[in-house]
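Q: Could you fold this chain for me?
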Amino acid sequence: MNKKIPLGAAICFMGIIAAITFVITMIFSMGWFNSKMSRVKEREQLYAKIAEIDGIVRANYVDEAEIDKEALFDAMSRGYIAGLNDKYAAYFTPEELKKEQQDDEGILVGIGIAAKQDESGYIQVSDVYDGSPAKEAGLQKGDLIVKVDDQDVAVVGYSAAVDMVSGEAGTKVKITYRRDGADKDLELTRKQVEIPSVSYRMIENNGYIKITTFNAATVKQFETAVDSCIEQGAKGLIFDLRNNGGGTLDSVKQMLDKLISTGVTAYQRGQDGEKKVLCEATDAGEVDLPMVTLTNGNTASAAELFVSALKDYDKAKSVGTTTFGKGIMQDMYTLSDGSAVKITTAYFDPPKSENFHGVGIKPDYPVSLTAEQEQSFDLLDETTDPQLKKAIEVVSAAQAG
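A: Sure. Below is the predicted structure, expressed as structure tokens.
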């Protein structure tokens, strides 16, 4: 027999539930309100302190009339970002932002060289890019640029001279370069040049592909390298990511999409700790060949994600030494005046394994280089590089198995 609850008791019970709900809501709301108010007070204190400093400067600084407002704003913005203690965060002026965006695209505007500072303080050409004004004019690796627009590089300083070589596409720059003790002048017209970030060749029946960074241009270069190696009869692939400091996650996503058929290749975890899909392979096709990755302590960030995703999907073994350990991502936010800030916004996690931030990725086959081999790293090849030798051995064994 069913018992009915008296109307009065039901009303009382509903009142209690409503009261409890109201109290819980108020507690949550008050916590949220207090948190917001605390942040408002913090901001008020920040603005008040800046205003106080500005007032002192305006009233007492000896050259108050000469204050550069834009330089002051830029310095204040850099200081705020520096105060975050985020070593990957940065502030960019509009000009710096443009350069950063060009780097992400894998292009430069200039004469088309890679350079380093010579012991004498001059610009030493370390590479000349195909299709560049420098290449067309006959500039060679090893040449020394001693003057830019008739100004001595050693006098104006290396960094300033490099900036002078760069510029807007279509504009001209005069350089004086030294080769075999003789100086020669060149007038070059700056242009946009794609920076090569992928090189490849066959080693026996394996494709050896070296990736120096990850940017928009890397994707097409990588696809060309993989396809070319396969066309040449590659039975295995070796991806060399040693000294690759990373780059854009979007480029890694597209490159993994070529190697992995389907599946998540990275997750992200932000302020709330919630795990969301960041990258996913959607191409039904995949490269079904034994693969090996080469790593060292300078293999970082997006390069580590590339390595870990291939490991997680049992696509590749790794050879070398433990990677750098940067498993956090940064986002760029453009400001109203055209400047921008870049700050760390989330962790990016491999598809199956643990995040490698702060610990790196240990290789399946640990192999170290001697101090002497590290010094002459760029000169090593398959006959003198113990890490590459081991990679060839591992990928060849996988073919036989």
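A (continued): The chain has three domains: 13-55, 107-194, 198-400.
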